[in-house]
Design brief:
This protein is an alpha/beta fold. The protein is built from eight helices and eleven strands. The strands form three sheets. The chain has a seven-stranded mixed β-sheet with strand order 7-6-5-8-9-11-10, with helices on both faces. A two-stranded antiparallel ribbon has the order 1-3. It has a two-stranded antiparallel sheet with strand order 2-4. InterPro entries: Hemolysin_A/TlyA, RNA_MeTrfase_FtsJ_dom, S4_RNA-bd_sf, SAM-dependent_MTases_sf, TlyA.
Length: 269
């Protein structure tokens, strides 16, 4: 028997909206849809595998992740055009949509879940859908369209320390990685506040230190760092890191965690 949930809760779980209040207001505004039908009540019970999309005039992408990748591409001055993209933790496909709109030739959309990818992307011949796939099980042999040379990572309930040692085995040389750092899944349990919120800049600094250590241990170089332009579920500040595979970094010494954290708190808190 398929598990079911309230529609408003699923919207938050999939990070289509920031919080439960926004989910309910979006449904009442008539901008939340399944594959073919509009959902008109926040308490509507649906299968957890039901496709959901939110029509947002201010977002050109199918999911909020697109805005995050867009900022990374602009601020890090990195080009995804003509790249074979991989979206780790694709969910509705915001990162994939952004990459394709910026010229990526194809995108692997990998997610352990099922039926979350937006219908537009599911029917796009450039998207290689890899649902019900645990990234830790991905090998070069599973990548029938070739090894990627540009990867985004947006995963929940797992630390990036479990992702990097798999990723470094499936990349082309000179690859770029944009990883979303979610502090609530990297910090110690006692450092995470109510509803999974972390507000302490010192904890954010500790998290960034740990994630960079994990990256270096797996052979990645740190190229740049910024904060996500929008908060995650329930208002958590998140960070975007640009890593390189088989790339030398001439910028790491100039990257200030404190400056990035301060700007994030100033603009998002």
């Amino acid at each position: 028997m398929k598990k079911k949930k309230r529609a408003d809760e699923l919207l938050v779980e999939r990070e289509l909206v920031e919080n439960i209040d926004k989910a309910r207001r979006s449904i009442m505004a008539g901008i939340v849809f399944t594959e073919n039908d509009r959902i008109d009540k926040p308490g509507t019970i649906i299968s957890v595998e039901t496709p959901l999309r939110v029509k947002q005039k201010d977002n050109p992408y199918v999911g909020r992740g697109g805005k995050k990748l867009e900022k990374a591409l602009q601020e890090f001055d990195v080009d995804v055009s003509d790249k074979l993209f991989m979206d780790v933790g694709s969910s509705t496909g915001g990162f994939t949509d952004c990459a394709l709109q910026h010229g990526a030739i194809k995108s692997y959309a990998i997610d352990v879940g099922y039926n979350q990818l937006d219908w537009k992307l599911r029917n796009d011949h450039r998207v290689i859908v890899m649902e019900r796939t645990n990234f830790k099980d991905v090998t070069p042999e599973l990548l029938n369209h070739g090894l990627p040379n540009f990867v985004s990572i947006d995963v929940s309930f797992i630390s990036l320390k479990h992702i990097f040692p798999v990723l470094n085995k499936i990349l082309q040389p000179n690859s770029d990685i944009i990883a979303l750092i979610k502090p609530q899944f990297e910090a110690k349990r006692e450092q995470v506040g109510e509803k999974g919120i972390i507000r302490d800049p010192a904890v954010h600094h500790e998290v960034l230190d740990k994630v960079m250590m994990y990256a270096r241990e797996s052979g990645f170089s740190l190229l740049n760092l910024t904060y996500s332009p929008i908060t995650g579920t329930e208002g958590n500040i998140e960070f975007l890191v640009h890593l390189g595979w088989e790339k030398e970094s001439n910028t790491e010494a100039f990257i200030s965690y404190d400056r990035v954290i301060e700007e994030a708190h100033m603009n998002l808190s």
